[in-house]
Amino acid sequence: MIEKAKGETAYLPCKFTLGPEDQGPLDIEWLLSPADNQKVDQVIILYSGDKIYDDYYQGLKGRVHFTSTDLKSGDASINVTSLQLSDIGTYQCKVKKAPGVGNKKIQLTVLVKPSGTRCYIDGSEEIGSDFKLKCEPREGSLPLRYEWQKLSNSQKLPTSWLPEMTSPVISVKNATTEYSGTYSCTVKNRVGSDQCLLRLDVVPPSNRAGTIAGAIVGILLALVLIGLIVFCCRKKRREEKYEKEVHHDIREDVPPPKSRTSTARSYLGSNHSSLGSMSPSNMEGYSKTQYNQVPSEDFERDPQSPTLPTAKVAAPNLSRMGAVPVMIPAQSKDGSIV
Q1: Is 225 exposed, middle or buried, given 0-12, 13-18 or 19+ CB atoms closer than 10 A?
Q2: What is the distance between the alpha carbons of residues 187 and 134, in angstroms, rounded to a whole number?
Q3: Where in the sequence does UniProt note compositional bias of the Basic and acidic residues kind (predicted)?
Q4: Model pTM?
């Protein structure tokens, strides 16, 4: 049996001696029987007819080689490089030189060395508290062995720790300042080892009440600040909404309404203009009708209506109308008829 670590090189020995009666051609063959019995044996390298063939098995292609350059000298050993977990299995060496035949089997085990080991403290490092010292490798083939050591502060371990010095976890109960110091944890298996360091400082208990009170005050201040921000945002939104509504209601293109007095005056003025352009035949009826139609809500009158001056109407030209003038006698001052 051969045990090797992952990534290393495994030397598989196979030596033979030829007899005087062995006169046939020399053939050397290496076979692999995988750990999984469901798989058939695989030829991994072959020497025949003074030639080497090493491309039979894809899983070991480029990683298996004869160690000797002169195989006829009696050395058929091989090297398997960059070992993987898939290389685990039984290797068989067969040597043929008629009429002689010989074989040898070697069981190869590939293990993973411990690596990436991490040491840490699980719990609070305070006087009187309970916590744990832990040692965890990232990888490593079983079985694993652990060994704790104290590297400082008198290098004396508490008696209660002794049963756990070979385990991955040390449970600390009712811690004291004497436990403070630097510790190492070494992890081992059959193919290698790894180590990590840990610094333990046991300190007095912290002021938890003050810490909790400070946290509560901080939370309350944060809530107040958030409330102020929300209030300001809502107030600003209400102001913006009010400004939009006011702006929407105001129409700049509509002129302001006229006063009642100006409306009445303009109405009266237009009627006066109309009266000036009317003929004597319809003036009387128009004047009576139009002034009676002035709206009461647009024109405020005095208690007594003013007397309008009599309009002077020019006498009609009767000659243009086809009428015959009639002479009317008039009496002079002295009584004579003119």
Answers
A1: exposed
A2: 12
A3: 242-255
A4: 0.55
* Structure-model confidence comparison of residues 259 and 87, the more confident one: 87
Query: Cβ contacts of residue 81 below 8 Å, gap of 6+?
Result: 9, 63, 64, 65
Q: At what angle do helices 280-291 and 260-276 cross, to 10 degrees?
A: 170
Cβ atoms within 10 Å, residue 248: 8
Phi, psi of 11 (to 5 degrees): -100, 120
CB atoms under 10 Å from CB of 91, counted, come to 22
Give the closest residue to 39 by CA, choosing from 30, 31, 29: 31
Digit-coded pLDDT (tens) for 193-236: 999 999 999 999 875 555 666 778 889 888 888 988 988 888 88
Annotate 193-253 with DSSP letters as a single string: EEEEEEEE--BPPP-HHHHHHHHHHHHHHHHHHHHHHHHHHHHHHHHHHHHHHHHHH--TT
Class of residue 67 by CB neighbours under 10 A (exposed 0-12, middle 13-18, buried 19+): middle
Q: Could you identify the residue written with the tokens 């070494």? A: 186
